[in-house]
């Protein structure tokens, strides 16, 4: 298929938006209170990647940390106690070229990864247009090929039967994880699809540079719902833990909350001064392990701030302002009491949700693309622009 000029330009991968393309590697160091700084003895720096590490994610069942990089590999790092602590498995993303008997490295970024609910398999999406399924011992189980261009997002459904992917070819695909076959391809967007999120095991939302959000369902040939209201590309979408509210964030500097019960947004949240890159719901409230705690939405922006929102009232209740460069990632601890944030100022910050106070700081050696908590909430992983992956251990 052919792409428009705008779509070709968009192939400058969205992770490389502001901090990397401006060519300015100088970062003014964040003011760090020495009493808050995490000691080196509690940090494990994992080296092996040969390019930026865009993404990382913990296995839900054990302390294995997956990372994906511009070096065309994903890696599984062993952070379980024992002799192999810190060891890595290299998952090389190769393609079969015409005239070649053996697969060769794709030389394309690994753009997305996600563990299934049991932790038995890791799915990865790549700029080479293929999704792949791997076992925890690093073996390639399946290669999923149907997208005509880079994959930007990929998610397992809750029961682990299907994988959902979104690509620059403007489509989203539901894959059967057991067979590796395409169950259904959805071609409703008019521009690259940037993010997807399952609502339940058969329905999901997708967003795009076309400023639209579609809610779709397996075996339906039309969207169940289409939400319009953003004035620029929609970077990320997330269903709340109950599946009732859908949050979206955009380059138009707004967050919006949507309900399947109405066409217009429930709340239009405006406070950030630059593009909002990502959002996360707290693991609190109805249908969570913390049902008596308040539900919050966190937003991370290129204005260097993180904001916490009370979604019931539609108001910002905390503005977290210690970062000095664009914030690319936020993650709630499993208990919902803490928030980790990662920025291109090279810092990982840990915040108290209750007070909004900064609890801990760690400055790495590269800009932070992603932060994530392990399932027990005692380790935070962070992936960085200089090829490192850091693990902060709060048990020591």
Unreliable spans: 5-32
- What class do helices, strands and sheet pairing give? mainly beta
Q: Biggest β-sheet, characterized?
A: 4 strands, antiparallel
- Average the pLDDT over all residues and give the rounded result: 92
Fraction in helix: under 10%
Number of strands: 34
Number of helices: 2
Q: What is the terminal-to-terminal distance?
A: 54 Å
- What spatial order of strands do you see in the largest sheet? 1-34-33-32
**Strand fraction:** over 45%
Instruction: Report the principal-axis shape.
Output: globular
Radius of gyration: 20 Å
Could you characterize the architecture of this molecule?
There is one protein chain. By secondary structure, the chain is an all-beta fold. It contains 2 helices and 34 strands. The chain is globular, with a radius of gyration of 20 Å. The chain starts with a helix and ends with a strand.
Please outline the helices and strands.
Blueprint: H1 5-10, H2 18-21, E1 43-46, E2 53-58, E3 64-69, E4 73-78, E5 88-92, E6 94-95, E7 104-105, E8 110-115, E9 121-126, E10 130-135, E11 140-145, E12 151-156, E13 162-167, E14 172-176, E15 182-186, E16 193-198, E17 203-208, E18 212-217, E19 225-228, E20 234-239, E21 245-250, E22 254-259, E23 267-270, E24 276-281, E25 296-301, E26 306-310, E27 315-320, E28 327-332, E29 338-343, E30 347-352, E31 358-363, E32 368-373, E33 379-384, E34 389-393
Antiparallel strand pairs: 1-34, 2-3, 3-4, 4-5, 6-7, 8-9, 9-10, 10-11, 12-13, 13-14, 14-15, 16-17, 17-18, 18-19, 20-21, 21-22, 22-23, 24-25, 25-26, 26-27, 28-29, 29-30, 30-31, 32-33, 33-34
């Amino acid at each position: 298929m052919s792409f428009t000029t705008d779509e070709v330009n968009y192939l400058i991968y969205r992770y490389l938006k502001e901090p990397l393309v401006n060519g300015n590697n100088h970062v003014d160091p964040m003011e760090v209170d020495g009493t808050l700084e995490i000691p080196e003895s509690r940090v494990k720096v994992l080296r092996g990647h040969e390019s930026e590490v865009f993404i990382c994610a913990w296995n839900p069942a054990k302390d294995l940390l997956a990372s994906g990089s511009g070096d065309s590999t994903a890696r599984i790092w062993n952070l379980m106690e024992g002799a192999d602590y810190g060891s890595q498995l290299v998952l090389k993303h190769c393609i079969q070229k015409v005239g070649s008997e053996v697969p060769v490295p794709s030389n394309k970024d690994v753009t997305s990864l996600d563990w299934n609910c049991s932790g038995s398999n890791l799915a990865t999406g790549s700029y080479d247009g293929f999704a792949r399924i791997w076992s925890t011992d690093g073996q390639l189980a399946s290669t999923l090929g149907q997208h005509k261009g880079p994959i930007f997002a990929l998610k397992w459904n809750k029961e682990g039967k299907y994988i959902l992917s979104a690509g620059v070819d403007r489509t989203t695909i539901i894959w059967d994880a057991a067979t590796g076959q395409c169950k259904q391809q959805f071609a409703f967007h008019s521009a690259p699809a940037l993010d997807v999120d399952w609502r339940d095991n058969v329905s999901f939302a997708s967003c795009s540079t076309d400023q639209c959000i579609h809610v779709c369902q397996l075996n339906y040939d039309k969207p169940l719902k289409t939400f319009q209201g953003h004035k620029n590309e929609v970077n990320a979408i997330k269903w709340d833990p109950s599946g009732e509210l859908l949050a979206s964030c955009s380059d138009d500097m707004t967050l919006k909350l949507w309900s399947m019960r109405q066409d217009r947004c429930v709340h239009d949240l405006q406070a950030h001064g630059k593009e909002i890159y990502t959002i996360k719901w707290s693991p609190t409230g109805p249908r969570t392990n913390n049902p008596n705690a308040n539900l919050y939405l966190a937003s991370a922006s290129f204005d260097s701030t993180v904001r916490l929102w009370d979604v019931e009232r539609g108001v910002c209740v905390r503005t977290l302002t210690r970062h000095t460069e664009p914030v690319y990632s936020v993650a709630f601890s499993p208990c919902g009491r803490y928030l980790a944030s990662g920025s291109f100022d090279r810092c990982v910050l840990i915040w108290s949700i209750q007070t909004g106070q900064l609890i801990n700081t760690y400055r790495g050696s590269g800009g932070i693309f992603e932060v994530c908590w392990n399932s027990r909430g005692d380790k935070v992983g962070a992936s960085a622009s200089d090829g490192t992956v850091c693990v902060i251990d709060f048990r020591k």
